[in-house]
Each structure stands twice: as structure tokens, then as C-alpha cells.
Amino acid sequence: MKAMLKSGLIFLAATIFLTSCASTTLIQSNPSGAQVYIDSQNKGVTPYNYSDTKIVGSSTAITLKKEGHQDLNVMLIRNERADVGAIIGGFLVLVPFLWTMQYNPTHNYELIPGSNQNTEEANGTTQNSNSTNELVKLKNLLDQGAITTDDFTILKVKILNSEYEYSNSVADQLIKLKGLLDSNLLTNEEYNSQKNKLVNGK
């Protein structure tokens, strides 16, 4: 009887695990019909259903482009709402805690009329957009107590001095670490050790 109960629990946990990993959100724009670029790759047009199996705190860079409108760069972070199924599964099997947060069902974005500027100015705009996105993510981490004021200042100076690697975003790595800490997959000591290495570039 106990063996059957154990097998049933394992089957239930596996089922919850498989259904809880993926999260889907509908990306919409006003006006609709904007080209959707995900991590610099053209995936389709709005309205667009986006889905992934990334872990808690993972981020995805999205750009919306439409003729006659300015490009819109946004960051989608998988920490918007709790997944009850994954939380229940996490009590049975530890791994599902990595997927306890999902995206909101929809994301609506307003496109601003206008045209993109020449290549040089556009590159500068992209750089400014990248720095703004990183500072916002770092400020959120600071507000959550995931980094200290000194950590924030060190990284902000690197961004302002163009010494920050956006392709290997420290903010994104810190968000993933925070997700592992929140899921009890890292101790506070392990988290702080890894965090300090990222912040100080060691």
C-alpha cells in the first residue's frame, strides 16, 4: 500500500513538473502587427504568443519594431506571478521550485509614433536603452535586498563608464542567483560568495 502511495505521489509530482515548467504570455502592441524580436531574432508579429521553460528570475530581451514607430525594447522577467502547481510539486520533488514563478498572461505595449534615427544615433539609443534596462534591474535587486548599496554603486559606475558587458549581464546572473536562493537551492553564504564574484568581476 505504501509502495503504491509512493508511486502515485511520484507520478503526480512528475505530471506537475512537466506541466509547470513552461510559461506562456501573449505579447500585444498598439498598433498591432509589430515585428517581434526575441534575443535579437525575428519571431513573428504582434499579437504573439511567447512561451519558454526558463527558471525563476530568467530574463528575455524583446524588441518590437513597426514602420512609422520607434523601436521598443523591453525586458521580460520570469517572476511575475506564482505557479501553484510548481509550488505543490516542489514539496514533493525539489527541482520544480526552479519554475515556481510564471509570466503574466498578457503584456501590452504602446508604440510611439516616429522614426528611428540614423545608424550612429540609433546605436547610441540602443546603448542608452541597454544601460537603462540594466540600472532598472539592479535597482529592483537593491529594493529586494538581493544586493547592497555598495554593490549597486559599483555596477552603476561600470555602466556609466562603458565598462559593463551587456552580453554577459551581471544583473541577469544576479536575478538567477536570487531565484535559486529563494528556492532554497543556495544557502545565504553560497549566494553572497557568488554575488561578490559577479559584482567585483572576480
Give the helix/strand layout.
Blueprint: H1 2-20, E1 23-30, E2 35-38, E3 41-45, E4 48-52, E5 59-65, E6 72-77, E7 81-82, H2 84-92, E8 101-102, E9 106-110, H3 119-143, H4 149-160, H5 170-182, H6 188-200
Parallel strand pairs: 1-9
Antiparallel strand pairs: 1-4, 2-3, 2-5, 5-6, 7-8
Helix pairs in contact: 1-2, 3-4, 3-5, 5-6
Query: What fraction, in percent, of the residue positions are helical?
Result: 40-55%
Number of helices: 6
CATH architecture of the largest domain: Sandwich
In angstroms, what separates the terminal alpha carbons? 54 Å
Look up the CATH topology of the largest domain. Answer: Immunoglobulin-like
Low-confidence runs: 86-97, 118-126
Domain count: the total is 2
Evaluate the radius of gyration.
20 Å
Number of strands: 9
- Structural class based on helices, strands and sheet pairing: alpha+beta
The SSE order reads HEEEEEEEHEEHHHH
InterPro entries: PEGA, SHOCT
Keywords: Signal
Pfam family, one: PEGA
Protein name: Putative oligomerization/nucleic acid binding protein
Describe the model.
The structure is a single chain. This protein has 202 residues and is α+β, with helices and mostly antiparallel strands. The protein has two domains: 116 residues, Immunoglobulin-like (Sandwich); 86 residues. Helix content is 45%, strand content 22%. The protein has six helices and nine strands. A four-stranded antiparallel β-sheet has the order 3-2-5-6, with no helix packed on it. β5 and β6 form a beta hairpin. α3 runs parallel beside α5. The N and C termini lie far apart (54 Å). Keywords: Signal. It holds the Pfam family SHOCT. It comes from Algoriphagus antarcticus.
